[in-house]
Amino acid sequence: MSDPTFTGRVADRAHSWWAQSRSRSQATAAAFLVLALVLVGISAYVWASPTGAPLRDAVADVTETVTPFAAQNAELRRNLDRATQTIASQKGKMTAMQAESVAAQAGAAKQLAAAQQKTQAAQSELANVKAQLAAAQAKTGHSSTSTGASGKPASSSPGTGPAPITAPARADLLKPSSRYFGMFTDQAPFNWATFDATSAKIGVSPNLVGYFQGWDQSFRADAVQRSWQQGRMPMMTWESRPISADNSSNSAPDYSLPKIIGGDFDAYLHQYAKAVVATGLPLAIRLDHEMNGIWYPWSETDGAGNPINGNSPGDYVKMWRHVHDIFQQEGANDLVVWVWAPNIVNNLPAGHKAAGYLESLYPGDQYVDWVGLSGYLRPPYKSDNDFSFDYTFKASLDTLRSITKKPIILAEVGASETDGHKPAWISSFFDGLAKPENSDIIGFSWFNLAVTSYVEGVRATNDWRIDSRSDSLSAFIAGLTRPEDDFTLTPAQ
Asked: Are 318 and 263 in contact (CB under 8 A)?
């Protein structure tokens, strides 16, 4: 149930609140209206009244300030755009210039390569022309030159240019009218400095020059030409191994005798023989010397019968004949004097001293022009060594003479200064050459160097040089210049 009194009070209060709220809203609206009228009035005063000018100027200043900044920004943006375009343009030009530079460099490189190729071709053609000219000159010289082993190059007539390089005919070289005196030095015939210096001390100019070449080298026509320009017969020791090979090793598998026999080097040998023919001048070739020893890779067996470098008995002769036959096919044997030159037998293993062993290594008279020997006065000395010619050479000479009647050349000789026996040995050497039984010895070539090597396991330096000491030099001069020794003596220049 309800209370009429409470209800009436609530209604009276609600009526009272609403009445008050409406009165306030009306008052507020009136206030806003008045304020709006005041602001309108002020604005009208500012823009219409002269006293409102300061306010108008202030507003104008703000407007004017904003306007220049916008203009400057626009100008800056235009400048930036222009700079960007300029940079891009310059980059394009630089790229183009770089491309042109690269193209120019490539073009220059091509031109240089082409020029180099033309130069090489011209040099090759010049070398061929020179070789052909030398061959033609040599053929002319062979028909007119017969001065023996000491023949000199012909002189040219005034205005005809350099003298042609000439040499004695091969037949005259095979059986010379007098003996050869030769030397090995460190650089001859490519450089004559040491050769000529020693010759000057002796007072006599040698008429033979010895030098070494390997099977990794092409034929050196200049060696032969330079030798004959000096009137000296060239004798090349041709080793079937690289020229730089170490003498302390007898192993060179790539150059074994079976590989040579089997044709591995045929192209090389044919080209070599052709080069000899193109040069047109004679030379002696001492192929794979000292084959009866055990220290080179072309030896067949060691002292106990074991193979050396994959070789077998009989291979050496097959190799020699194979090389000789290739030279024959190319016509080179008309210019080559083939020298088969074993080592003296004194210090060889017993099996290599045995009867018949040296004979088994001889290729045959139709393949050999001269037979030779390597023989030295070399320490350590055996107790029976009397330091004489006969002790050093006689046993080996007797064996050679039992095999063939070919002329003999002592192709590599020398004497050590160790223990002071050298002068006496040199005197005996020339005494031995003067004996009638040795008249088939057509000369010798002295190994004029000082060398360190191993002999029978002992390392030693031996001075083989002719002028190693004054007494050795004096003994050499005395022996060489005796008439009975039958050397052609040309005074040293």
From this structure: no
What span, in angstroms and rounded, lies between the C-alpha atoms of 422 and 417?
A: 6
For 368-397, what is each residue's pLDDT tens digit? 999 999 999 999 999 999 999 999 999 999
Query: Quick one: pLDDT at residue 58?
Result: 46
Summarize the confidence of residues 332-344 as an average pLDDT: 98
CB 213 within 8 A of CB 237: yes
**In 3-state terms, what secondary structure has residue 49?**
coil
Contact 363, 320 (CB under 8 A): yes
How many Cα atoms are found within 13 Å in the side-chain-facing hemisphere of 194? Answer: 17
Q: Say what the pLDDT of residue 65 is.
A: 46
- Compute the residue count for the chain: 493
For residue 59, is pLDDT > 70?
A: no
Contacts of 349 (CB under 8 A, 6+ apart): 294, 302, 303, 304
Query: What does the alpha-carbon distance between residue 378 and residue 55 come to, in Å, rounded to a whole number?
Result: 129
SS3 state at 339: strand
Quick one: what percent of the chain has pLDDT higher than 90? 62
| Sole residue written with tokens 């009306």 | 26
**For the segment 140-187, what is each residue's pLDDT rounded down to a tens digit?**
443 333 333 333 343 334 455 678 999 999 999 999 999 999 999 999
Reduce the DSSP state of residue 295 to 3 states and report it.
coil
> Residue 15 class from Cβ within 10 Å (0-12 exposed, 13-18 middle, 19+ buried)?
exposed
Other C-beta atoms closer than 10 Å to the C-beta of 410 total 27
* Beta pairing partners, 370: 339
Task: Using alpha carbons, select from 233, 336, 187 the residue that is nearest to residue 275.
Answer: 336
CA-based end-to-end distance of the chain: 166
